[in-house]
From TrEMBL:
InterPro entries: Peptidase_M20_dimer, Peptidase_M20A. The keyword Lipoprotein does not apply. Pfam families: M20_dimer. Keywords: Zinc. Its cofactor is Zn(2+). Residues 8-52 form the Peptidase M20 dimerisation domain. The keyword Amino-acid biosynthesis does not apply. This is Peptidase M20 domain-containing protein.
Length: 142
């Protein structure tokens, strides 16, 4: 079931009971799943099947899900990749291009070794210039 799903599963918090040597009356866990190329409903079904299949008394509550986030990638010189990460882009309203870009490596973002080099920032300035120039050229063609 999970073998063909590439992504991340984080059970970030497990809580229940009153002491380590007492069986809890109830418990809960919270977490997040990030999967590239799957819909929230597909992931919800996988989780429910796995959890409820292991014990019919377990209840799964899924609060929300965000599906694949389309972004624009029509500017030469920028690396493009599909990843199982989150972004605020779905919250951007309006009819405009949506680029996801920033300094450094996305593979290091929010990790224990997250860092930026001065050269990453300098390169990002050039990248932002290219994005702005491209956006201005596109708007002048309208």
């Amino acid at each position: 079931m999970w073998l063909n799903v590439v992504g991340t599963l984080n059970i970030g918090k497990i809580e229940g009971g009153v002491a380590g040597n007492v069986i809890p009356a109830s418990a809960y866990a919270t977490g997040s799943v990030r999967v590239a190329g799957r819909t929230p409903d597909e992931i919800k079904d996988l989780i429910r099947t796995a959890v409820e299949g292991s014990d019919p008394n377990l209840i799964v509550e899924i609060r929300y899900g965000i599906g694949p986030v389309p972004t624009d990638y029509d500017i030469d010189g920028f690396e493009t990749v599909v990843l199982n990460y989150g972004t605020d882009i779905p919250r951007l309203k309006g009819n405009h291009k949506r680029y996801l870009y920033g300094p450094g490596s996305i593979l290091e973002a929010h990790s224990a070794h997250e860092h930026l080099r001065i050269s990453d920032l300098e390169q990002a300035v050039e990248g932002y210039k290219a994005l702005i120039i491209h956006a201005l050229e596109q708007s002048s063609e309208l």
